């Protein structure tokens, strides 16, 4: 038994192809049905995000990855050689290692992003609901979540900011501590300003006031954020009250001067004020940064944080790769154990099937036998098969426990019972 | 024997402090390990003051100061990123303990009244709180300097300015309360034996009391905080060290009284 991963991602295929693949693949039930009809897989899970579509499958015995690759590309209509080459396929520990990399966001568009873990969890949840996964993929998911958590806690893969929004929040919290109970003023409705404001609101900001040249546009934006809108001319009045000022205005001009800030410092009782000027040209007088309690940053400062964050994440990724390498070995052994347990169970099932078939044939010929004898024969055959299987199964279980998989495979092959025509 | 015991305490701290800063594996810098020497240190202080009546010695005072500083650090580091205070608090705590071990201990003094040990203990607990504020203020000034000079790479490793300022205020306030109670206890005792005089120790303590009173009241009344409070704590603690050193040079905190 093995584990396959087949799919395409933002790294191998453009969005058009990913769209087509998703539409033609259908949901996990449809994929599973297709693979079952072709007698290719025992367990299937489908991971579908905006950046990737991947099928994780536990194949039937003797099925090669090429068979599954062929079926999937054919059923998804990606018949051209060029398109087929964009679909990657991994088997055994490479498939497991790939899933670990995906869940740890090492394969994501933004290294270290946090959404992917919940997306993986959700996909497996859907597969569980659709009853397309069994003990092996459950074990795979369990190990994947453990590894992803380990990477997040032991490395700094998602610690530093790599987006304008998060960098702005990091700067504000570095000065103000928690954002709870804090208020912010967004001056203008520029894209960067909106991004930082959205992140601040997500970070627990208590109040947001939006001041825009066009009041209606400001009011519209305020509605979106659950904020209040004021005319731009009123903005200075709020300097006394708010803790954060975000300026993202086009057209230049000086909106907040050093004198404005000197005038409000005592009224604010010297509470710190964080100003993030994302406008180009800047609209807050730069010399205000020298004032005590006033912290002024611009787009270059945020870029500095982002560049550092990217560098940190790249170096954390190296450590994460090493963790994945180690964990793949350990986890693969565990999963193999799970696979062999399933095989052992299968041998019991097959033997029981053979026993019942043979017993029925025999009893059909011996119809004259009284009921008591029939029951005794039934019990005897059951005891017989159990006694015959007991020692080899115990040896197989010991091999699985001791991770002696070669010996185990040999034993299972030796014990495997050819399927009868009835099956 | 007492100096030997003090040195033993120093040698309990030393490997942990060195491991904290120089070992790549950070297992030994876990807070739990530092509690062991701290507990030993506290038991030693109880023995030194309670059984040996050496509470009036400079060694005892410095040792109390060091213990308060290290216990305070252990409590503070439970907050996110406050571990960064280690660069100030651990070396300072160790240095004060080394000084305590090197200073020859004075003869023991039988307590004429419980006001005296209470007075000394409270004063040094207050000084310990000022030392904590000093550490937080130094880190505050460093983080603030990085923000002001736009050196933003890795700034997230340090605690927020707000948190450092808040703990600075708490440390200074607790120190101020302990110092007020300590000075009052000394005054009660001096009144009872008619020994009050404006000697070096009294002037030093009252000057420090006024200094911290200005800092705390400026914050409460005018809202002066952050940079203002940090400089008050740094200067206050340095002045306190100078006063302690001068008191040692002239032969005692309250010469001729204790």
Strand content of chain B is under 5%
- CA-to-CA gap between the ends of chain B? 23 Å
Q: Identify the quaternary structure here.
A: heterodimer
What is the succession of H and E elements of chain B? HHHHHHHH
**Helix and strand composition category of chain B:** mainly alpha
Rg of chain B is 19 Å
Q: Catalogue the unreliable spans of chain A.
A: 419-423
What is the spatial order of strands in the main beta sheet of chain A?
Answer: 7-6-5-8-9-10
Number of domains of chain B: 1
Class from helix and strand fractions of chain A? alpha/beta
Question: Low-confidence segments of chain B, ≥5 residues, pLDDT <50?
Answer: none
Share in helix of chain B: over 70%
Q: From the alpha-carbon coordinates, what is the Rg of chain A to the nearest angstrom?
A: 32 Å
Q: Order of helices and strands of chain A, N to C?
A: EHHEEHHEHHHHEHEHEEHEEHHH
Distance between the termini of chain A: 20 Å
Q: Which CATH class of the largest domain in chain A is shown? A: Alpha Beta
């Amino acid at each position: 038994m093995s584990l396959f991963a087949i799919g395409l991602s933002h790294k191998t295929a453009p969005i058009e192809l990913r769209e087509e693949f998703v539409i033609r693949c259908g949901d996990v039930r449809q994929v599973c049905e297709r693979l079952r009809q072709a007698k290719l897989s025992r367990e299937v899970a489908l991971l579908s995000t905006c950046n990737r579509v991947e099928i994780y499958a536990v194949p039937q015995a003797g099925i090669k990855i090429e068979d599954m690759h062929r079926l999937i590309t054919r059923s998804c209509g990606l018949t051209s050689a060029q398109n087929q080459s964009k679909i990657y396929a991994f088997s055994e520990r490479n498939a497991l290692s790939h899933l670990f990399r995906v869940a740890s966001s090492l394969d994501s568009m933004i290294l270290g992003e946090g959404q992917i873990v919940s997306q993986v969890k959700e996909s497996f949840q859907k597969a569980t609901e659709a009853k397309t996964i069994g003990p092996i993929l459950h074990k795979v998911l369990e190990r994947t979540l453990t590894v992803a958590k380990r990477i997040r806690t032991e490395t700094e893969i998602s610690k530093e900011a790599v987006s304008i929004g998060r960098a702005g929040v990091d700067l504000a919290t570095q000065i103000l501590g928690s954002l709870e109970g804090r208020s912010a003023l967004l001056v203008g409705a520029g894209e960067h300003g909106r991004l930082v404001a959205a992140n601040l609101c997500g970070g627990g900001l208590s109040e947001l006031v939006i001041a825009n040249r066009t009041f209606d546009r400001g009011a519209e934006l305020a509605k979106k954020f659950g904020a209040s809108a004021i005319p731009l001319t009123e903005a200075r009045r709020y300097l006394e009250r708010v803790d954060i000022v975000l300026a993202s205005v086009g057209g230049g001009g000086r909106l907040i001067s050093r004198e404005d800030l000197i005038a409000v410092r005592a009224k604010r009782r010297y509470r710190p004020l964080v100003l993030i000027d994302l406008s180009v040209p800047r609209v807050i007088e730069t010399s205000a940064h020298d004032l005590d309690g006033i912290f002024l940053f611009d787009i270059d400062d945020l870029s500095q944080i982002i560049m550092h964050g990217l560098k940190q994440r790249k170096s954390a990724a190296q450590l994460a790769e090493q963790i994945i390498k180690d964990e793949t070995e350990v986890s693969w052994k565990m999963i193999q154990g799970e696979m062999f347990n399933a095989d052992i169970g299968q041998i019991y099932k097959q033997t029981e099937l053979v026993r019942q078939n043979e017993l029925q044939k025999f009893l059909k010929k011996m119809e004259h036998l009284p009921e008591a004898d029939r029951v005794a024969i039934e019990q005897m055959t059951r005891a017989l098969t159990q006694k015959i299987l007991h020692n080899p199964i115990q040896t197989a279980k010991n091999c699985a426990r001791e991770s002696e998989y070669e010996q185990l495979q040999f034993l299972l092959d030796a014990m495997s019972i050819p399927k009868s025509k009835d099956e | 024997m007492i100096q030997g015991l003090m040195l033993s305490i120093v040698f309990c701290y030393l490997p942990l402090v060195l491991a904290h800063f120089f070992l790549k594996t950070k297992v030994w810098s876990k807070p739990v390990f530092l509690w062991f020497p701290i507990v030993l240190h506290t038991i030693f202080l109880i023995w030194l003051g309670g059984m040996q009546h050496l509470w009036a010695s400079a060694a005892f005072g410095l040792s109390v100061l060091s213990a308060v500083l290290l216990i305070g650090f252990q409590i503070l580091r439970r907050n996110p990123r406050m571990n960064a205070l280690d660069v100030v608090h651990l070396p300072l705590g160790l240095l004060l303990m080394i000084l305590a071990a090197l200073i020859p201990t004075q003869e023991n003094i039988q307590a004429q009244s419980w006001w005296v040990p209470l007075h000394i203990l409270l004063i040094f607990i207050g000084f310990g709180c000022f030392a904590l504020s000093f550490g937080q203020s130094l880190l505050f000034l460093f983080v603030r300097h990085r923000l002001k000079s736009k050196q933003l790479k890795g700034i997230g490793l340090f605690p927020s300015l707000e948190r450092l300022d808040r703990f600075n205020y708490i440390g200074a306030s607790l120190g101020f309360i302990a110092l007020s109670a300590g000075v009052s206890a000394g005054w009660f005792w001096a009144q009872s034996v008619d020994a009050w005089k404006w000697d070096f120790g009294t002037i030093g303590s009252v000057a420090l009391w006024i200094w911290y009173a200005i800092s705390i009241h400026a914050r409460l009344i005018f809202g002066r905080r952050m940079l203002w409070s940090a400089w008050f704590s740094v200067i206050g603690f340095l002045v306190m060290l100078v006063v302690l050193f001068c008191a040692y040079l002239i032969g005692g905190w309250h010469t001729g009284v204790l």
